[in-house]
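Box 3.1 A note on notation
Throughout this textbook, protein chains are presented in two layers. The first layer is the amino acid sequence; the second is a token string describing backbone geometry. Keep the layers aligned when reading.
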Amino acid sequence: MTDSPSKIILYLAPLRGFTGYIFRNAFMRHFGGFDVAVSPFIPTVPAARVKKTHLNDVLPANNRSVAVIPQIIGNNPADFIPLAQRLFDLGYETVNWNLGCPFPMVAKKQRGSGLLPHPQKIEAFLEATLPAIPNRLSIKARLGRKKTDDILPLLAIFNRYPLDEVIIHPRTGQQMYDGEPNLDMFEKCLDVSAHSLVYNGDINDLATFKLYSQRFKTVDRWMIGRGALINPFLPAAIKNGQDDVADKVKAFRAFYDDLFAQYRRDFSGPGHLLDRMKGFWTYFSQAFKDGRNIKKKIHRTRKLDRYLEIVERFFEEEAFWNG
């Protein structure tokens, strides 16, 4: 393709423990900007063990704010197929197969990025799965587990199958989120792939998005994860072409209060709630000047009441947005 894309489509990345339906709904209420969200992965289990709670994050009643593509992680077609069918019955015409999860505990089981060095297993999976599921299938992958060029022969395999699209994070699994994304290799992927590619990785500000979109002129689909947790104004800024929110602290506070209230209703005990919010503040803190201080205070506290005091004081007296 040579023409520039006419419309930008933004995807919310699947970040397990963060971008579940509570976050997705609160985010869209306050910021918008995303067209699609890929859910954090649902692990395959034998069909008889799939319970309603297993699918809670993607139940239609919980997902009315943004279109969702459920993501499945697994390497056994016999388990994947009935789960995809179950999701189709819930109304999901597309499911995503996770070939990107970088975490060693997942990869050592040849799931996520751990399956990337095994093209024959991937092809056998596609051969068995695609004719047997009613859904369209997309794939989210990294460049490889250890090697950055594992992806090229895999794309040649993908080209032989009717995939919906391929999402590529241009790092290896072993890199986790360290180092720079390999933009040269992503460019090679564009040359090789017969399918539409979604770019994912390190879109953390409007300037970076503009730089990437100028380089990859044929790409119209972009996925943002950590960048939206750090700067939730980013997706709308990309859509609008400018970042024009005047009082970001006030707008973020309204979102945070909404998010916290929803999680407080959802979690059974203060310990679980506190742990979840500590995880969020690892990202939220990066949006504020001297954010390391609030992150350190929050991570040190062990009591919910103390946490509430720290956050209240921060928003009232100490919060200044970066940039």
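Residues 248-266 form the longest helix (19 residues). Strands lie at 9-12, 36-38, 42-43, 67-69, 71-73, 94-99, 136-144, 166-172, 197-200, 221-224.
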